[in-house]
Design a protein that fits this description.
The structure holds two protein chains of two kinds.
Chain A lengths: L3 E4 L2 E4 L5 E7 L5 E7 L6 E7 L2 E4 L7 E4 L5 E6 L8 E8 L8 E2 L3 E5 L1
Parallel strand pairs in A: 2-11
Antiparallel strand pairs in A: 1-3, 3-8, 4-5, 4-9, 5-6, 7-8, 9-10, 9-11
Chain B lengths: L8 E5 L4 E6 L9 E6 L6 E6 L4 E2 L4 E4 L5 E6 L8 E9 L4 E4 L3 E6 L1
Parallel strand pairs in B: 1-10
Antiparallel strand pairs in B: 2-7, 3-4, 3-8, 5-6, 6-7, 8-9, 8-10
The chains are: A mainly beta, B mainly beta.
């Protein structure tokens, strides 16, 4: 089945130690998104790629970076994780046409010690 | 998205209709309204979307007010498996961004 796959599902890192989360898709969708979801809160958009064009949200900290080497893969890099960055990170994809909808992965839960 | 608000929680008896409201008073004329639900520790799942007209699919119905400032998701016969957090969302910004509302935690009671 076509889907969005995130790895790892669970990541534990130390304060300040860089971490990379990955997302792959078999849907051939143009747009890939990264959302941050803290406990009991709604998903918050960090940034998205429309093909190779990167679109950062104005309030996304510089500590968060992203790479999209090809259509299928997208990475979230957290350069120096702080305790406040502990969250579920959700990857999603969509087409670009009319009322496109988001297809989400299962998420990567980040713990910062 | 602070502009899209929902009640924090609701209960519904099993077999009854669940009506989940969303306030999106600042939505612009060409922005769709979407609904997703999220079961604990999983990614959100798409339910339904609409622009102006009411919509229905196999999962739910969506009622959008004429002024488009609010909408209601209707689960016609709630089951225990419908217990989840329900988010309304709007598509804004340059056209590809999806912003989620505050979410409603729905509990279906046996």
């Amino acid at each position: 089945d076509a889907m969005v796959i995130q790895n790892p599902r669970y990541q534990v890192t130390q304060f300040g130690k860089p971490v990379t989360l990955s997302c792959s898709q078999t849907l051939n969708h143009n747009v890939m998104y990264w959302y941050q979801q803290k406990s009991s809160q709604a998903p918050k958009l960090l940034f998205h790629y429309y093909d190779k064009d990167f679109n950062n949200e104005a309030d996304t900290p510089d500590n968060f970076q992203s790479r999209r080497p090809n259509t299928s893969f997208c990475f979230l890099d957290i350069r120096s994780p702080g305790l406040g960055d502990a969250a579920m990170y959700l990857c999603a994809t969509s087409r670009v046409a009319g009322a496109n909808v988001l297809t989400f992965g299962a998420g990567s839960r980040l713990t910062v010690l | 998205d602070a502009k899209t608000t929902q009640p924090p929680s609701m209960d519904c008896a099993e077999g009854r209709a669940a009506n989940l409201p969303c306030n999106h008073s600042t939505i612009s004329g060409n922005e769709y309204v979407y609904w997703y639900r999220q079961i604990h520790s999983q990614g959100p799942q798409y339910i339904i979307h609409g622009l102006k007209n009411n919509e229905t699919n196999e999962m739910a119905s969506l009622i959008i007010t004429e002024d488009r400032k609010s909408s209601t998701l209707i689960l016609p016969h709630a089951t225990l498996r419908d217990t989840a957090v329900y988010y309304c969302a709007r598509k804004g910004g340059t056209g590809n961004q999806f912003y989620f509302g505050t979410g409603t935690s729905l509990t279906v009671i046996p």
